[in-house]
């Protein structure tokens, strides 16, 4: 199965964390579907919600925070207001100070993924803006390991 077909075949069961999002009228663009920029907004939102709820992140005060160094998205079908979206999150890889997330967007009540994206974050020290020589904090790493998918097959 090719990489794109593998992503298209993803189901909610392939992910470890789900977050519901009620689309808004302003999410639609002139083509009557959710604007591409909203996908990135939602992907960033599910990641940070997970980091706050499960990894001890306190955005204004944590000694480390994640900087997005890479992102992309593959679109398969559109979604539009007033649909309810379900965002699904997993971790595909954890490095010393980096993490690779995979995020899928589903429409509630439909099985096929509307899109699948990837974000790579590098966790940096607040004081220096650089990765810590010792890597990410143990609390952060433990939280991310909870949604790590072992032996995943990369799309590339």
UniProtKB/TrEMBL annotation:
The answer on whether this UniProt entry bears the keyword Cell inner membrane reads no
Could you tell me the superkingdom of the organism this chain comes from? Eukaryota
Q: GO MF annotations for this entry?
A: fatty acyl-CoA hydrolase activity
Q: Name the species this protein comes from.
A: Canariomyces notabilis
Q: Which Gene3D superfamilies match?
A: Hotdog Thioesterase
- InterPro entries membership: 4-hydroxybenzoyl-CoA_TE, HotDog_dom_sf
Q: Mind telling me which Pfam families this protein's record contains?
A: 4HBT_2
The family assignment reads: Belongs to the 4-hydroxybenzoyl-CoA thioesterase family.
Keyword Kinase, does the record have it? no
The molecule here is called Thioesterase/thiol ester dehydrase-isomerase
Give the UniProt keywords, A-Z. Hydrolase
